[in-house]
Fold each of these.
Amino acid sequence: MIFKYLILLLFSISFIATSYAEEGGGLSLEPVEKIAMERLAKIQEEALYPEVAFSSDGCSGGLSAGWEALAENLPSFAKTLGEKPPWEECCVAHDRLYWAGRTDDGYRRRLLADGELRACVMSVGRSEAPALSSRYDISVERIEEVFSIAAEAMFVAVRVGGVPCTGLPWRWGYAWPQCIDLDGDN
């Protein structure tokens, strides 16, 4: 089963470059993702209601968990930077959209959700920059740049790792039953 996750991950990673091209009018993942959206739509039609209640791990991929572990084990980290990532509410809002995983115009919806996550993280950076600048004696511009880098990395991560029907727990439509055969029966 782990091998299937690795294959799916490698498949997704191969599209990182085209993920960026989507916004610039170049190559698009839409034809590939459309197949997965159709499979998810069929699952949603058959199930009628989500399989699981909404839940969020904050920022997926270990970002929130790693931050919390550092805060728990390094009191100075928690005191200085807080117990949760400053942009965690952005991730929870993003998770709500991913949980539902609407398939009508799903590709566009997912792209917009991912763009909203990026914009939210950058907005947090802009609002937190003056206080962080004073605290750490770093320019406001540099702090905004760091938040921008984090926002771009998160955008790429969700574009690659959030495709529906991957079997990943943070995929688009994670409220619904899996639409990929993880046991190899089909």
Amino acid sequence: MFALTALIAVSFLTTSRDTAASADIWLSVDTERLFLAIMRGDTALRVFENIAIGSRGASRSRVRGDETTPLGEFTITDIRPSKRFELFMEINYPNRDHTERAFMDERISAEEYHSLLIDLDQGNPPSQDTRLGGFLGIHGLGWSSPEIHKAVNWTDGCIALTNEQLAELTDWVSVGTRVVVR
């Protein structure tokens, strides 16, 4: 496990930041067919099959604790080591689209809405403590069961790949990489 973490860290530090930004790489996540594709334009460069999403599927109207993966367009905002999942690629959920829709649907209060908009307008990470939840991203299995990963969607709303898939993905992405979840 340590060797994989070291490989991920070295790979990320040496190649991914420039590769993703200069090559217009983006990620397409298909929540029905359960795959993640590394894209350049309309061309899939690499496809990872048998990914896992939230244990209750995907949703456009996610709220904290509902165990769904939010649909929409996001950006990777942070990439960091994770003791539990090897590596964690945080996405900007809730983003402006999710925030505005949640306010219109009365899933968040006016106070939460204005707080989120201030964060977003100032370029800060959105608050992760509203009724919309947060702390979502792409991660590996870490110490989770590969057998369960193959059989069911098991996350609280994140997108999970095997540790090997995640190690390969790090060569392609950086902070700022677009992630489209459909």
Amino acid sequence: MKKDIERNTNPKSKSAALFRKWSRLIHRDVSFFFAGILLIYCISGIYMNHRDSINVHYTVERIEFQTNDYPAGKKLKEKEVRALLGNYQLSDAYTKHYYPKDNYLKVFIKGGSSLELNQANGQGVVEILSKRPLVSDMVKLHYNPGKWWTWFSDFFCIAMILVIITGFTMLKVRKGIFGRGGLLLIAGILIPIIILLTL
């Protein structure tokens, strides 16, 4: 009992407890403040990791069709091309068209969409691009879209370092960096190092 009282009245013990308390408060508040942007970076980061197989900015709807209305050897005029696009409510989105080779029509549509038609066999395809809601805008943040965002993202990185440091200091040493926390820290550092060495 006497030892417990002495431990509780020890100035160093009080200082350490106060330091851990402030570490927890800072860790909590900074985490709450930056939770939104961290979540945005995580979600958009997953898309960025798979950008070779996923178009991060657009979804592509592919519509295949068959028609005998446009015989081989006939070069379509704009009016006829617009009529063809009208089947997909894209008449007003017409930009231009041309024939890259005989009997092969290619139409450019606003927004990056396109239509291709092989007039020799009547087979065609329409590719309609639609901007991915939210995800496309979130991905842009990875490319520092403006000066103010650069400053904010720098502040965010500094804050994340602070979260890491307070994560180390908000627990008692034996329960933190010199305990299980230290083992997890080492494991977390070793994993990316091993992956880099195997690339």
Amino acid sequence: MKLLSDIAKIKPGHPFRGKLNEDADGDVAVLQLKDITDSFFIDITNASRVDSSIIKSSYLLQEGSVIFRSRGHTNTCAIHHDADTPTVCAAPLFSIDVNPLLALPEYVCWFINQQSAQTYFNRNAKGTSVRMIDREALGNLPIPIPPLKKQREITAIAKLADREQRLMDQLREKKKTLLSGILAQVASGTGIDAENERLPEVVATPQEDKDNHPEP
């Protein structure tokens, strides 16, 4: 078991005085809290832009930088992969640059998003109205460091599980939309004849069946 600060360099987000002055023609993207999705992905599509003349080069993100949400009720992270676009993150985000000889960014990101790490953050958060994880608390996060080969295996399995969950969510949403449309036609009398035709049976997805019938 090591501390996060033992295996990674933690930097605060780029400081901006007052409100961020966006420049539509700016050549540097600025990641903010809104640009990290609840699914632990960074969406740079609508990120604010600024001119590079106001950016300190030491704050530019590297390929594989782990971006951590230090403020709010959800202290999770995502990985920056867009190496083609010069990018910085703005406070209150932190960037975590992992030592590649000790750990994989994907593994560190996966661990931070797990319940054990979230429990640690809950115990070490500061503030009442606005919850905050400071740099010291983040750096003191205990993290197990298995061999790199094992880290790759863990992250590969986790990635497959996430993909399966997203597909299940998409299937559930499409089924809901389809069924709503059919029932709306029945109600308006423009679709299935409710008096003479049977309504379609609803078949639960494996995940829904598991949710509705948990194992004892």
